[in-house]
Amino acid sequence: MAVHEHTYVFVIGTFFAMLDAYNNGANDVANAWATSVSSRSISYRQAMIFGTVFELLGAITVGARTADTIKNGIIPNSAFQNNAGVQMLAFTCALAAASSWVMWCTRHSAHVSSTYSLVSAVAGVGVATVGAPKVQWGWNKGKGLGAIFAGLAMAPAISGGFGATIFMLIKLVVHIRKNPVPWAIYSSPAFFLIAGTICTLSIVYKGSPKLGLNKKPAWYIVAVSLGTGGGLCILAAIFFVPFVHAKVVKKDHTIKWWMFVLGPALYNRPAPVDATKANVPNYAVVQNDEGEESSNDSIQSANGSHEAIKTETGTAPSTTIVSSGQHEKSLAAVEANQLSHKELLIQGREKLHAKLRKKRSPIGWAMRHLHANPMGVGQIYEWHNIKTFAVRLPAMVVVGALYGLHYDIHAAQTGVMGTPDGQRMQRVYSHAHKYTNEVEHTYSFVQILTACTASFAHGANDIGNSVGPWAVIYGAWKTGNAAASKAPVDVWQLAVLSLTISLGLLTYGYNIMKVMGNKITYHSPSRGCSMEMGAAITVLVFSQYSLPVSTSMCITGATVGVGLCNGTLKAVNWHRTEPRATTSSLCQMAVVLDLTNLRISRTITTPFLRIPPELRNHIYNYLLIGPDRLSRRHSAFCAHADRSSRDIERPPFKVVDDHKCICRRRQFLGILLTCRQIHSEAAPIFWSNNMHYFESTNLFAQNVSNALREQYGGFLHHIGIVSTCHIAHHGSAFSQSNKTDAEQSMWNILLTCKNLRTLELEIDIVQQFQKQYLKLRTALPHLKRLTLVRVQGFYLESQPCLRDPQLIYVKIPVDMPLDIEEHTEFHNFCRSFRDLVNSISTNINNMIRPLGAPLPHRLPPSLRDNTNKRTITVGQNKRVVSVTFYGLPNSHQTRQRLARQRLFEQNRLKAAGLPSRSEAELSLRVKQLKEEKEARDRIEMRLEEARVADIKEKDRDKRAQEQAVAEAKQKANQRVHKQRKIKKTEKAKQEERKRVPKKSP
């Protein structure tokens, strides 16, 4: 049945498992597909589709076995002692630490290993949960940390060797030939044979336990693997080779992709008359051909969609600028030398956003929406920014989901021309030989198959990173027991996490792809298929031997191995090769485990710091055993010891225990929070050797029943429930009606403290629960002393040295016999105790009244502040009672001594060049006021800048309006002047015609 009290752990673990799978897709899967995308064999969107399909297939068919290794090979299942809560919490912390680390690295474009991040996290929680000896540090039959981390060094080297071998084979068979195109076409079925055999072998050989393929004999495995690979080879020879021959050799540009079904009939297909050039894509890393669309005017942000959103507010991210033509590249190089880095960023941001805003797709709407609604000045939590953020949120979601689909990976990998990064990549590319596009086109189909194989291998191996710990959490939550060592992994879990991996690749994989592929060495389809094939073989070999291995390490090692086949170390960009992954789960697990009620019992084999037990107990006694709460008073140098002047000490007694006090007399409770071993050793000493006072029965029930751990109830030896107000028993919620409630009844809680030795109670509590009190003798066999206590407060009159009336407490204890059995005897004893308290109170009131007189406040000779106990004789029977005074005013001698101590401390600090306490507090306060003033000034400055900008904008609009009016007036005057001139001319002509006489006919 499900463990409902740990459902929140299961929910949190599920969240971090999906987050780890998302990061796995954004980091590791992006590494696997970066080679194909960088080689231009497949587009980014096509990689999303193929990646989703083959990740899902690899996870479902092969992924269960690897998940079982990570789950049980590092921490043995027996180490949890069937404690489901601790096991669930352990793997939840491992997922949280690993996913947080990989998310941070993905955000900063660092291609780390998700596999080794989670392996380190599981080892960390193993140390914090069950101790270092329980973690499998050695080889452990190929399943321990030694075997797993051995792959950290072996996997890149092995995958580099496989990749280099395959590429050298291609180079020997194809590239060095005088006419390499036919060799590339007719040898391609062999690579289909290799890829098909490896992919089939990974499914059949051991396979998924649910398919039962691991029980097949060896001949069956060999027959099925070679048969599938051979069948794929035959299909390639029948359909693929004629299709590529017609397209590349005959240069038939009219052939369509679906015509491959014609097979050998394509050999008889006549070539077009105008067939002069094969219609194949350009696979060059840096495109120089005219009309190339993939990199024309391409400017992409280097920090992802988050920066794309931020740049609309004025923050410029790093950009990548790649032009299409050679002339534009030269101009870009000249501009890169002239413009500063900041200007390049601003230029790239404006071009990128202008390009995206022109699109009619949802990304265009989102970018236009963000551009039209920028964030305002001030902090994000200001009201106008909160409203703007709410308006921008839908567009931000769209940009986060679709930004990667519009990202130009090739432009980001080649770098900005003229910059150090662009020049470095040019030097790396210059050492790589460029092969013809016809030959590379042949291997683009093979690379698609190898990419799918690599994705299938990733789903088979790295899906265990997230599903292994998640399977442990789900199994423990579902059954209520710690997950078994051979607990099955459900297919739906593999499917869910594989879809989450694909989502990470779709939305954030571009942030890793831009620093992989061509950023390491020159890529082409023939090189890319060699890299992916080498990495796939390595991953599958490790997976079949149940050894988790990093796909990132394998693909990086294969990329370096193929890059070195160029014959020089300069053909590899060593700045982007091997990353390192770390984790912080040990401290996280230790803190979370101590803050919860989840416990696991284990034998401590190694003493803390190898200190002997006798010395450890002596240290614990010194640190944890101190005076009870009623007896504490502040020292002269404590911040809670209030004074009216430097020379006069105010009596600083406080009944309440301030946790910020620095003079608590040895009770350093912080040591209990150091680690679980110290807590288990020191807690019994603290609870059994100290007198614990509680202000009321409510506080006692809350602290002992609700807050105190169950196993520590037996360690309580000394308890006092004593009120320090005038009404001794106040605020109690206990009555005869609810006394049987085990959660709140004080007496039921007391009966659980079987080892109780000393008990101090108020008289009101004892009288109210008489029947329960009479049962204490039989229920608590170790009880040796039962005391009725009354703490009475007395006010002194106000004194010149005191700002408030002084309150003095007097504790009146009377031991009560444990053998009282009759109710009459019990009532008589309680009545006599009340009479005694009244008599003592009158006596004490007469005693301390003279203390309110003016200075020097002399105390009676028998009552000093350093000896606060007094023996009083009261009643006709001359009964002697020992009472204790708390909060007595300091004597004149004590005040002088404290003043000398403060003066000595001030002189010591002054000689050492250090400020005194008052000076330090003053300087701190001045610093705080200065910081507050600076903050206010900054706010006022921003407001003033906004106001000035608003005024300038209004003035600019006003000037523009005035200028427009003036221009309109000027045009009107010109029209009027022109009309007047025309009229004047016409009038002159008329007058001239009048002066000229008419000719006679």
3D architecture notes:
The protein has about 1000 residues and is mainly alpha-helical. The chain folds into four domains: about 5-280 and about 435-595, no CATH class; about 300-425, no CATH class; about 690-890, no CATH class; about 935-975. The protein is built from 31 helices and nine strands. Strands 3-4-5-6-7-9-8 form a seven-stranded mixed sheet. Strand 8 (about 870-875) and strand 9 (about 880-885) form a beta hairpin. Helix 1 (about 5-40) packs across helix 17 (about 490-510), helix 2 (about 45-70) packs across helix 16 (about 465-480) and helix 19 (about 525-545) crosses helix 20. It starts with 6 loop residues before the first helix and ends in a 6-residue tail after the last helix. The model is unreliable at about 290-340, about 575-605, about 635-660, about 725-745, about 800-805 and about 850-860 (pLDDT under 50).
First-to-last CA distance: 133 Å
Major beta sheet, strand line-up? 3-4-5-6-7-9-8
Number of helices: 31
| Mean of all residue-level pLDDT scores | 71
In short:
With 1001 residues, the protein is mainly α. It has 31 helices and 9 strands. It has 4 domains: 4-280 and 434-594, no CATH class; 298-426, no CATH class; 690-892, no CATH class; 933-976.
